[in-house]
Amino acid sequence: MNISKINLRFFGVVTIRLLLLILVVSPAMAQQATVSGTVTSGSDEMPTPGVNVVIKGSSRGTVTDLDGNYTISAAEQDTLVFTYIGYNKEEIAINGRSQINVNLLEDIETLSEIVVVGYGTQRKSDLTGSVSSVKSEEITKIGAANPSEALQGKAAGVNVISSGVPGQEPNVRIRGVGTLGNSNPLYVVDGVFVDNINFLNNNDIESMEVLKDASATAIYGSRGANGVIIITTKQGSSVEPSFTLNAYEGVQNVVSNDFEMVNAREYAQLVNEGLINTGANALYNPDTLGSGTDWFDEIFRTAPIRDYQLSFNQSTDRANYFVSAGYFRQQGVLEKTDFERYTIRLNNRYKLNDFISVGHNISTSWYSKDNPNNTTLQHAYRVSPIVPVKLENGDYAPSGNSGAGNPAAGLDYFNNTTDGQRIVGNVYGEVSFLQDFTFKTSLGIDYENTENQIFTPDYFVSPTQRNEVNRVEKTWSKWFDWLWENTINYDKTFGDHYINLLAGVTAQRTKFESLGGSRRNIPSDDPNLWYLSAGETEGATNSNFANAASISSYLFRANYTLLDRYLFTATFRADGSSKFPADQRWGYFPSFALGWNVADEPFLDQAMWLDNLKLRGSWGQIGNQRIVDYQYYAQAQTGIAYDAIFGGQLQPGSTITQLSNSNITWETATQTNVGIELGLLNGSLNMEVDYYYRETDDILVTVEIPGTVGLSPTDANVGSVLNRGVDFSVNYNKQVGDFGFNVGLVGTTIHNEVLDLGGRDQLVGGNIGAGNNVSRAIVGQPIGYFYGYNVIGVFQNQAQIDNAPTQNNAVPGDLIFEDINGTDADGNLTTGPDGVIDASDRTYLGSPIPKFTGGLNLGINYKNFDFSIDFNGMFGHKIYNAKQQERYSGLDNFDKSYLDRWTGEGASNTHPRITLGSGQNYFVSSRFVEDGDFVKIRNVQIGYNLPTDLAERLSTQNIRFYVSGNNLLYFTKYNGFTPEVESTYLYNDANNPTRGTLAAGIDRMVYPLTSVYKVGLNVTF
After folding, report:
1. Would you say residue 968 lies in a domain?
2. 700 and 992 in contact (C-beta within 8 Å)?
3. Residues 824 and 925 in one domain
4. At which of 169, 204, 239 does a domain end?
5. Can you tell me the distance from the alpha carbon of 757 to that of 781, in angstroms, rounded to the nearest whole number?
């Protein structure tokens, strides 16, 4: 069945019928008197969506759209009533006018916020779902390449783990990890679904809303299981033409902490001890050595970062415009890891007449990035500080280490770049008809074209670090995604009742294709010759790959409000996806929610101290279809190896490489949420607390096929995972004369637990080599917890060894492992010590999933000055320090923690004697499991706004200067560059996503996070 053809046929019929209905209704409307206009609010006269516009004395009315515009049919003698919570009511007689604009004045200090939700907006007071919102000023404060960074420590329920790699998106998790596969949220940018938002310029964003519970996310059906982040970009809002320049220049350094490597003298002492401890002779004379080479100093640098954006915006009765151009450049603190991006945005809306509007939101970006050589940092950790960077003749010095090359040479000879172009946007049309109905059709696209180029020159540093023949590799890839959505919205207020109904049909198709090749022996290392045609044909390779997927959807939502106090929301979405076989293709995702604005009850009229008290609860189901395509087909591979001769003719052959799975279907997350909102002290103090319970069933688990079969792993719906906890936010703000301050606190608790693995005892992952799997999943424990021996001390003498459980080959100075389990006569595992240390004594060593994440945000303003400081932290989780365990050579370097080693009885009961990379001291154990807890200074900013009269003399509306710093300091005990460790890069395997989840929190030498120091300028003129 071709699902895309069905979609097109269905949508064509639906759209034609709707247009015919509109054509019939429109002449009748045109004969009626219509009044339209724009509603603004506050002293800045910003266009305001969600304002109720009602004909006085009747139940007929409408609500302003996202741009504050409205249209209503009325008679000349009618009076319009404009109401919006938090503002004074306005009553204006029409008196024959067709255009009425109004500015609402504030009634109280704290206004009711308008929140963007799926396919529309809602007043915060009417919201039944759990939604966190981050506004533009917080997004631009961070100024990172990816806007998701701005959510760190700002949105309750959201955990953001930053990456130091320029241009790389951070890991974002909403209310824990609910799957063994892809846990990323869905991003919706101006209605377009995207998997990442690296193309966005921070200054173009108006707000980011995080949808967390089923009531908020179920409208997105099969895509909402991991949460949804809605990004709304800016629209034209200024009555007069307005230009804005946002710019900053800055520098970056590796975040300062206590992580250091030993110097040459200390290294020699440790190596000598390790050799002697293994029965060999000492190698070095430490007294002849100085500090030696600090390899991290050699490869790291102070790097610049800059961001410029110029925008134009204007709003008129018939159109509004927002146009911007941006430039972002971030050089990496590690050489050859730069990122550069150009962006252009066109957000325009045109009002063709009183009931038809069209518009577009289009973003185009061009980017170039240097992809990091992931082994460089590992080699810099391992290579001896005795080795110089270069020899006297100028050649790179050999490392003398079979497990690591010269890091500086590795950087010099590594060339891996990606250039790309991306277009994301939509065009849409809206038609208002029958007074209370709005039909909207939108066609969105996400198109990306990339070129990856790798050139490896011929070089020789040592027998283990060389390349005899140069090689160029090229890969072109193209991603094209279109999304067509058609919705009808009914919005009606009558008496004490308010109802909003939404229904729609959507279709989406995604296609990806890549084409690549490689050739060797390019005549020169000149970049002008890095083309396939310049190489020899012998040994050339080529590849071509493609996949495609389609999805069709039906959606419905009903919002009902009684007396502005009693709230009800019901949502339903049906998705049919080509990723699943025909009898498993459709998934159905309902949700229900109730809310009660208790503070508006008459019995609380005298509670002047109470501004807001709302109770809400929701239940719903959401899906996840992020799996590898075509799993319900058996997959085959062709090649010469499978050819055969039949009847004298050579026949091409193929072989099955992966079995089909005709039962594969959706992962389904069932979530319950109960929340309370409280506002006190005339809007100064606001709190929200939510309890959530999410159980994800039918989780796709990668099932390994026995090696003797010779087939690739496949996925099966056998798992179940629980996430539960509480997220909260508290905000207090106060303005007294010229002085004001605000305090914000957000936090989330997370309990993660595997409930079912389909009868499997365990899933293992986190393979760091040499057969060492450090992570696993079992029923009753968190996903990807660390598993190994629990260290309870260091043997101080032989007598202690003799009196301890048998631990083969142990000598004084070795680690003591806890005797936890044993085996009975039949070989079955038993609980309790048996006097022998063996594999059965491995146990739970901690989880990489934090039990609590949070942020503290403080701000002060006085006259034209403002100051803010933000903190972010994670607690209750562990990191596996694999870089200390992975010693591939007896000559690997050491970090400073090894100086605390055992050297004799009483010297240490935590750090063992020095051994050179083998033996029980390097078993997977709690020795390498460290606390990942940290608090960091996320951002500090000091700003100054030029006085208005002075700004006007300079022909500007506003000028602001600021200095800012990001990631200034960590407070952590972790022994590494950064405690923000999500997944080891080697295990982020798109074709086997389970491996990535089961490798979380493993540090094999991650790219360090950087401190950024900036000077910025904002000018509006």
Report:
1. no
2. no
3. yes
4. 239
5. 12
Query: Which residues of the chain are under the pLDDT cut of 50?
Result: 1-31, 108-111, 708, 984-995
| Token duo for residue 72 | 């209503």
Q: Roughly how many angstroms between the first and final C-alpha of the chain, as a whole number?
A: 57
* CATH number for 226: 2.170.130.10
Match 């022909």 to its residue by tokens.
Answer: 955
Take residue 874 and report the two structure tokens written for it.
Answer: 């994670």
Please tell me what DSSP assigns to residue 907: S
**Domain housing 217:** 115-239
Q: What per-residue confidence (pLDDT) applies to 895?
A: 94
In a domain, 685, yes or no: no
* Residues 126 and 216 both lie in one domain: yes
**What pLDDT does residue 252 have?**
95
SS3 annotation, 918-985: CCHHHCCEHHHEEECCEEEEEEEEEEEECCHHHHHHCCCCEEEEEEEEECCCEEECCCCCCCCCCECH
Spacing of C-alpha 103 from chain mean position:
39
Are the CB atoms for 481 and 447 separated by under 8 Å? yes
Rounded-to-integer distance, Cα 553 and Cα 575, Å? 4
Q: Read off φ and ψ for residue 989, nearest 5 degrees.
A: -100, 110
Distances from the Cα of 959 to the Cα of 143, 239, 416, angstroms: 18, 19, 41
Residues 120 and 106 in one domain: no
Q: What is the pLDDT of residues 508-525, one digit of tens each?
A: 999 999 999 999 999 988
Helix (H, G, I), strand (E, B) or coil at 274: helix
**Distance in angstroms (rounded) separating the CA atoms of residues 600 and 611:** 9
The reported pLDDT for the residue numbered 542 is 92
Which of 220, 239, 258 represents a domain boundary (last residue)?
Answer: 239
Q: Are 629 and 549 in contact (CB under 8 A)?
A: yes
Run of H or E including 310: strand 303-315
Q: How many domains does the chain have?
A: 3
How many of the other CB atoms lie within 10 Å of CB of 151? 24
- How many Å apart are CA 521 and CA 537, to the nearest integer? 9
- How does DSSP classify residue 797? S
User: What pLDDT sits at residue 105?
Assistant: 80
Residue with tokens 């991003």: 187
What confidence score (pLDDT) does residue 704 get?
57
Whole-Å CA distances, 723 to 580, 932, 1008: 26, 20, 30
**Quick one: pLDDT at residue 157?**
92
Same domain, yes or no: 206 and 133: yes
Question: Angle at CA 475, nearest 5°, toward 474 and 476?
Answer: 125
- 172 with 235, same domain: the answer is yes
Reading the block at residue 557, the tokens are 């939502």
Planar angle of CA 259, 333, 194, nearest 5 degrees: 110
pTM of the prediction? 0.86
